[in-house]
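Hi R.,

Quick one: here's the Aldehyde dehydrogenase sequence you asked about.
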Amino acid sequence: MTEQTTDDVARRAAAAYPATSQAAPAVRADALRRAAATLGDHTDELVALAQEETGLADARLRGELTRTRVQLRLFAGVVEDGTYLDARLDEADPDFVLGPRPDLRRTLWPVGPVLVFAASNFPFAFSVAGGDTAAALAAGCPVVVKAHPGHPRLAERVAALVSGALTEAGLPDGALQRVAGQDAGVALLEHPAVRAASFTGSQRVGQLLAARAAARPDPIPFHGELGSVNPVLVSAGALRERGDELLAGYVASVSGSAGQLCTKPGFLLVPEGTAYDDAVVAAASAVAEHRLLDRAIADRYDARVAAALGADGVRVVHAGHLRRDADGHGWATPTIAAAPLDAVRAAGPALLDEVFGPFSVVVEYPEGTDLAGVVAELFPGNLTVTLHLGAREDAPVDRLARHAGRLLFGGWPTGVAVTPAMQHGGPWPATTTDATSVGTAAIGRFLRGVAYQDAPQSLLPPPLRDDNPWNVPRTLSPRGASAAW
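And here's the predicted structure, written out as tokens:
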């Protein structure tokens, strides 16, 4: 895409902003539901395209497309409910305890055009019509999606289908656009019409883009999900009670979708002396090979596994393989390594950095180890931390919560529920801003607060007018209430 056409895209998004931001809730909700229905009508076509371009399994892709449609419908309900606007009304009060108070009304307003960088590993749910797009459209923001090169034809088709559904519902032309290529993405990130950006991908690329967003003459929010190693902490009691089941679940979580998930457990911490090899080998040996998403990911996986296994003190529990086909694509089975805690400390980034693919490390910790301290030292920012405890065992939950967006008690972090209470984010380096990209709270990334002081009714936005035409929930601070403070 040339510089001029990139500029045209940004200007179209800016031109679409007034109508998109002011569209009534019923219009925005209908647009999101139409988009979901349109994707459903083309399921077979889209899944076939996605499978051809990504190598992901048919069942996985159908489930992901269902998730994508659910996300769109979920945000339609958020728009209709109106609670997300956080509308607040303070009545004028000449006797307010701190001095006369004007009429103040505050609500959240869409930030403006949003640039979404699509992910490689979720060609539906974190791509053109994924959660970031759904949240931004629900907020009232036009969206420009920078398509991922791993599934270009799928991105083009989904964009055509969804943009058509949005315009049929009454949103303006330009409410959703797609661009391709790194240069186009960077140019749009730096374009003054773009007011926020979201990204799902590697830490290296995410940091580069975040720096570009921050270096603008007018810096904008950059919501980057940069990866996570998701440590799993296992107690001796948990192993005694359900050891084989727990270890089989671990291998299944590591190898699902060939380990190409941001919530894959990269480290399993177990007490020294635990006999886990046989159970891990039995589970890992039963896993069929799975294609990695593209050649570049296969190259990086190969290099990272070699670096991790080359660290001092690391041994191989189960040696998987990486088979390359004639086209250069990689087909992998899981590799599980192990190391004492001190060896992991000494290895540093060679072992601690994320390995994107079906690889994980069992870390053996001495009796009496402060596991919360280990998390703070070695795994300071993650999407998840998982605890497997025995009956009546305790854990320093408050300390662990400082280092993850989601704490799991049992179970496995892969599989992220699309639901209002989900938090899919975490402290740095998991994300650039500790927000969520899954669940209804994701809409907050694309809103900003605006207060109106002594504004005439005719100039107030609908959520703040006395007649409340959108019928949204509001918080009222009535005149005279401060007299009792």
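The chain has a mean pLDDT of 96.

Cheers,
M.
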